[in-house]
Structures are given as structure tokens and as C-alpha cells.
Amino acid sequence: MEALLEILSDLHPEVDFESCDTLIDDEILDSFDIVSLIAEISNEFDVTISAKDIIPDNFNSAQALWALIERLEDEE
After folding, report:
1. Domain residues of the chain, as ranges?
2. How far apart are CA 22 and CA 12, in angstroms?
3. According to CATH, what is the number of the domain 2-75?
4. Which residues contact 23 (CB under 8 A, 6 or more apart)?
5. Fewer CB atoms < 10 Å away: N or C end of the chain?
6. Which CA distances in Å does 55 have to 1, 2, 14, 60, 69?
């Protein structure tokens, strides 16, 4: 989780990713951020985020993203 928080903080250092759960709803993350996140997560955690996983629920919080990463790691 620490590595994910670091990736997120690099994108938006002003956001408290540990408590924010409206990253998409409040438009904190935009489409470019999502593309960057997918690439960074893929490199860092060696998982592939498919198109079906690119939904707001999976990107609205760091906890949701972490749950997605853990699920993808279990599937590999």
C-alpha cells in the first residue's frame, strides 16, 4: 500500500490519499492521471489492469485501488 500511496502522491502531492474516497467523483483524478496510474501500477506491482477494471469504483480511493491490485495479484 505504501508504494501505491507514493505513486498517487507523485501525481497530486496536495491530496490526502489515505482519507479521500472521491478521487473520481470530485474529479481529482482525470483521464490522463488514470492512464499514468495504470502504467505505474503495472510496472510496480507486475499486474495488468484490463479495460473491464477501469471503472470509477476501482479508482475512487487508494483503498479501492489497493483492493484491485490485490485481486489482480491473486489472479496471476
Report:
1. 2-75
2. 14
3. 1.10.1200.10
4. 15, 17, 29, 59, 60, 61
5. C
6. 20, 22, 24, 9, 14
Of the candidates 7, 38, 40, 8, the residue with the CA atom closest to the CA atom of residue 21: 8
CB atoms within 10 A of CB 6: 12
Distance CA(59)–CA(66), nearest Å, equals 9
Under 8 Å between Cβ of 20 and 61: yes
DSSP string, 32-63: HHHHHHHHHHHHHH-----GGG-SHHHHSSHH
